[in-house]
Design a protein that fits this description.
Blueprint (H helix, E strand, L loop, with lengths): L1 E11 L1 E2 L2 E7 L9 E2 L2 E3 L6 H13 L1 E18 L4 E17 L9 E8 H6 L4 H6 L25 E12 L5 E6 L9 E2 L2 E3 L6 H13 L4 E17 L5 E14 L16 E7 L1 H5 L5 H8 L4
Parallel strand pairs: 1-7, 9-14
Antiparallel strand pairs: 1-5, 2-3, 3-4, 3-8, 6-7, 9-10, 9-12, 10-11, 10-15, 13-14
Length: about 300
């Protein structure tokens, strides 16, 4: 079975104790099922831009992003295409700037409504939306999904990578950083621990796995900080040829309660050359990747 990846973005808008939901229409993935407004991230698109675009298209509302609320993943199999699609879903808290609520004129949804939590609980809800709203999750009945068009062939020169990274600290306030190995984009720079998640893996699970592999540490995730978008149209890595690379990276705050010497435990040939604990002053003098510099700058917020 072919393993595919995608990233979806969804908006949580609340007003007077109600939440905004949309219903999939005849062209939607699951006709008649309600969900949070949102959709797929296009290649190279920042997830925050994508959720603003999709909410406007499906509801007529102009919104702004307040913060990233959650990151979850699920896998849907399409036996007729012999494809297993892993979707990383990001939910953002949004605020309405303007516009008038309306049903979509075209596209995958046909209704948009403000509903109370009690009303939402009585609707047929997409499982990921129910989970994000803290409502009981009920699997969709077999055969509910609309037969989809065949998956297009994968683009030979494009890559999508969803990753989870950590601003990792210990009780003394030191920061754990990892150095990118030769042969990888950014070689020699110091980076946040983390990396790409595996097919079927939740973001926090992938991050804690990477923390062991890249730094030899056991940590606990305490906060979701945000999402970073990276587009490099000519990334040169181990593949040996330039690739149009799109990376979507969620960032968590992670605590290591009992730190040990930082040791790279992943197999030889990995993307991490070494790891180390640094005071904030020491970290400021290192050649940092953009995502590491940005996360460390938010440390005292």
């Amino acid at each position: 079975m072919e393993l595919r990846r995608g990233v979806g973005v969804y908006g949580v808008l609340r007003e007077s104790g109600r939440v905004l939901l949309v219903r999939d229409g005849t062209d939607g993935e699951v006709p008649g099922v309600w969900r949070l407004p949102g959709g797929a991230v296009a290649h190279a698109e920042h997830p925050e831009h994508a959720v603003v675009r999709e909410v406007a298209r499906q509801t007529g509302l102009t919104v702004t992003v307040d913060r990233l609320l959650a990151a979850v993943a699920d896998v849907t199999t399409y036996p007729e295409d012999d494809v297993a699609l892993h979707t990383d879903r990001l939910a953002f808290e949004l605020s309405v700037l303007g516009g008038t609520l309306r049903d979509a004129a075209d596209g995958p949804t046909d209704q948009a409504r403000w509903v109370t939590t009690a009303e939402a609980a009585r609707l047929p809800l997409a499982p990921f939306s129910a989970e994000l709203l803290g409502l009981p999750v009920t699997p969709l009945p077999t055969g509910t999904r609309r037969p989809r068009e065949p998956f297009p062939p994968a683009h030979p020169d494009r890559r999508l990578r969803f990753g989870a990274y950590g601003l990792v600290t210990d009780p003394a306030g030191r920061i754990l950083l990892t150095q990118i190995a030769d042969g990888y984009p950014g070689a020699g720079q110091w980076h946040l621990p983390g990396g790409g998640t595996d097919h079927g893996e939740q973001p926090t699970t992938g991050l804690l796995r990477e923390l062991v592999e890249e730094g030899g540490q056991l940590g606990r995730v305490v906060e979701l900080l945000g999402v970073d978008n990276l587009h490099n149209p000519a990334a040169l890595g181990p593949e040996g040829r330039p690739l149009d690379w799109h990376g979507v990276r969620v960032i968590y705050r992670v605590l290591v309660d009992v730190p040990t010497d930082a040791v790279v435990t992943e197999s030889a040939g990995g993307s991490t050359a070494r790891a180390g604990w640094f005071t904030p002053a020491q970290a400021a003098d290192l050649p940092l990747t953009g995502i590491a510099a940005s996360a460390i700058g938010r440390r005292g917020r």
